[in-house]
Every structure is written in structure tokens, then in C-alpha cells.
Amino acid sequence: MNDTVVLHEVAMPPAPALVLRPWCMDDVPALVEVCQDPAMRLWASPAIQSDADAKRWVRTQQQGWATGDRFGFAVLETGLDSPGQLVGNVVLKETAPGKPSAEVGYWTAARARGKGVAPRALEALTGWAFDMLGPGGLRRLELLHQVDNSASCRVAEKSRYDFDRVLPAAPPAFPLDGHLHARHRGA
Ligand SMILES: CC(C)(COP(=O)(O)OP(=O)(O)OC[C@H]1O[C@@H](n2cnc3c(N)ncnc32)[C@H](O)[C@@H]1OP(=O)(O)O)[C@@H](O)C(=O)NCCC(=O)NCCS
């Protein structure tokens, strides 16, 4: 897959435009800063404390693009006088040729929350995923969150990922039940 893909979400004043592009090593300092937030440690997978951790994580994203099973995008807010500030991450994962379903994930920097960044970025990712992989058979995107992550549940609802079912807890990785939401191609 081409790792120069860049997706755009137009400005929704007062919210600035968003640019989504594959992660790169230049993102390391901002990634380390964003990952110090307790909610990130609780809800999101990257356990990043240092530059070395962040470089390893970015490398994993780059390998995903190379192998075609994981497509992670840094989400940047852009303005007329700004080259782009890191505000989040969206990822399409568990993809394989001809596979009818895949999974999405996301997080937003603490300073950027509550402004609709995650739903807007997820909408861009969802459209791109169905455009790119729909003709090859992708019909369904799944979104999973722990049952007490109400902010993530709201992102799912606002992004038209309908509630599908409760997933039983699977400790230690998933100590509580989860919600599975799904969105179908063309829905
Ligand atoms: C879940 C998350 C991605 C939402 O991103 P976002 O860009 O803030 O999304 P929204 O602006 O649409 O807000 C979603 C909900 O977050 C809550 N919220 C609002 N302001 C908030 C703030 N300042 N801080 C935290 N949560 C806030 C509200 O419940 C909101 O729903 P509402 O629009 O009905 O009020 C973000 O809170 C996050 O990154 N959390 C930590 C990592 C995580 O949980 N990732 C998902 C794992 S499944």
C-alpha cells in the first residue's frame, strides 16, 4: 500500500481543517508528550514513555503500511500559519486481501478533546477504507471499546458505527466487558 496517502477533512469553523497522513519519525517528540496523559495510558494501547518507545511504535506503524495489514494515520490540525499540530491517531487494522471485515481504532490528544476531532478523523478513515478495500471485498468495519469508555462510545455513535453486541471481558488485556460497534459499506 502507498504510504504517501494523505486524507483531508475540511475546516468546520471554528474547528480547523484536519490532515491525516502516515506516522513518521518527525512525530516522535509530540507523540511522547501526548502519551503522558493518564487517559491514554488507561484506554489506548501505546505505552510510550520515551523517545525510544515512540520510535519503536512509529516503526510498527510503518511496518503495517509495508505489509498491508495496519494503516495508522497521524491526525494534524492545520491552519494558515501552522504546518500542523499533532492532535490524534486513527488506524485501520486487521486487514487482509479479500477479508470482509477490519477494525478501526483512535485516540485524541488531551488538549484537543471535546471538539469532534475523533469523529471527523474517523469519518475520513472510514471513507478511505471502503473506497480502497471495498472493491476487494471489505464490507464491514468494527470498532471496539471497553464498556465504561463512554467518550469512545459517543465517538462510535456520532460516526454511525451502530452498537452490535456486548463482548465478554478477557483479562488481563480486557478486564471489563466491551462494546462492539459496526458500520457497513454503503450504510
Ligand atoms: C475517546 C476519544 C478518542 C474521543 O475523542 P474526541 O476527539 O474528544 O471526540 P469528541 O470531541 O467527539 O468527544 C466525544 C465525547 O468525549 C467526551 N468529552 C467531551 N469533552 C471532553 C474533554 N475535554 N475531555 C475528555 N472527554 C470529553 C464527551 O462525552 C463527548 O461526547 P459528546 O460529544 O456527546 O459530548 C478521546 O477522549 C480519547 O482519546 N480518549 C483516550 C483514548 C481512548 O479512549 N481511545 C479510544 C479507545 S477505544
Automatic annotation (TrEMBL):
- Pfam families with a match to the protein in the record: Acetyltransf_3 (PF13302)
Q: Which InterPro entries match?
A: Acyl_CoA_acyltransferase, GNAT_dom, Ribosomal_N-acetyltransferase
Output the Gene3D superfamilies linked to this UniProt entry.
3.40.630.30
Give the matching SUPFAM superfamilies: Acyl-CoA N-acyltransferases (Nat) (SSF55729)
- In terms of domain of life, where is this protein from? Bacteria
Domain (N-acetyltransferase) spans 18-177
Give the protein's recorded name.
RimJ/RimL family protein N-acetyltransferase
